[in-house]
Amino acid sequence: MVCGRCQWRVVGSVVMETRTEDVGVAARPASLSPSRASDFMQCPLLYRFRVIDKLPEKPSPAATRGTLVHAVLERLFDAPSAERTAPRAKELIPGQWDRLREAKPELAALFAPDGADGTDAPDEDGAAARLAQWLADAEKLVERWFTLEDPTRLEPAERELFVEAELASGLKLRGIIDRVDVAPTGEVRIVDYKTGKAPRPEYAEGALFQMKFYALVVWRLKGLIPRRLQLVYLGSGDIITYDPVAADLERVERKLLALWDAIVLATETGNWRPRPTKLCGWCDHQAVCPEFGGTPPPYPLPVRPPESPGDEQGRMGPS
Ligand code: SF4
Q: In the chain, at which end, N or C, are there fewer CB atoms within 10 A of the end residue's CB?
């Protein structure tokens, strides 16, 4: 489909990433998104569990709050520019929360009255208080956005744009861009909202990887390099910007191709190694991870034996 407003090739329109749609249906990796590329760099076994085994994961309050805030910021631009105020944005929160729960009924379990405190006793008041605090935290994030950007002066060309580009190698890159601004000069700015805090400067490069990924997709789709990449951190009230050049994006492309080669190799050999880090604390799959005494489920795809010591590697470092 081609978007009538900006002539971008729009693959679909999405509100939230639905990675768990096909839970339990094993499949070969067919494309790469920034999230899944980061998964593989963090831990190849985590990538396998998410992309190939499609093991279910529990929704987390923080990630769901991020989805809610994204939805509110997206929908606010439906209003005429003068009405895009903080009170108006906060009014959208309950309705968007209802809509998310309708789309994903399992989210209701986040604030279920039982189990949250480690007992089976229903705790209606506690659940209501947790939900109220969670919604109040979402309000704070939305309010903070107004200290960073002025939506009355913005007219996004696209919001929550799902894009896909195929590289010359055949590798498909896809992703969801939170907001695309196009200046009268035609210059493009890609904006991504983060509900966490900005990383320390020495980690900014990692944070920009996702943005450079999107810039590469836009370059391949439109033949133009976005003028600016902008990360808006609602958790800390910071903005990180980067103006990419062709050499940056060519470097990202080479990195993604190498990453994809490693993923294909691991898919064919079934050699998905765990890489334990402190991020394991947030991993839903410790019970089936050898690093934590677990056993992965049987590998669901056909494998070929490794042909060389390099085939044993089956992974690529995060650098
Ligand atoms: S627990 Fe850690 S090592 Fe194991 S799969 Fe998860 S991220 Fe990888």
A: C
Q: Is residue 188 part of a domain?
A: no
* Per-residue pLDDT tens listing for the chain (319 residues): 444 444 444 443 333 333 444 555 677 899 999 999 999 999 999 999 999 999 999 999 999 999 999 999 999 999 999 999 999 999 999 999 999 999 999 898 898 886 544 556 677 778 889 999 999 999 999 999 999 999 999 999 999 999 999 999 999 999 999 999 999 999 999 999 999 999 998 888 888 999 999 999 999 999 999 999 999 999 999 999 999 999 999 999 999 999 999 999 999 999 999 999 999 999 999 999 999 999 999 999 999 876 665 555 444 443 3
Note whether residue 122 is domain-resident.
yes
What gap in Å lies between CA 197 and CA 204, rounded to an integer?
A: 11
What are the backbone angles phi and psi of residue 172, rounded to the nearest 5°? -95, 130
User: Residue 226's closest CA among 207, 246, 209?
Assistant: 246
From CA 293, how far away is CA 162, in angstroms rounded?
39
Query: Whole-prediction pTM value?
Result: 0.85
Which of 50, 292, 315 to mutate to test ligand 1, by most ligand atoms within 8 A of the CB atom?
292
| Total number of domains constituting the chain | 1
Q: Does some domain include residue 123?
A: yes
Domain that holds residue 143: 61-153
Domain-located, residue 240: no
Nearest-CA residue for atom 2 of ligand 1: 280
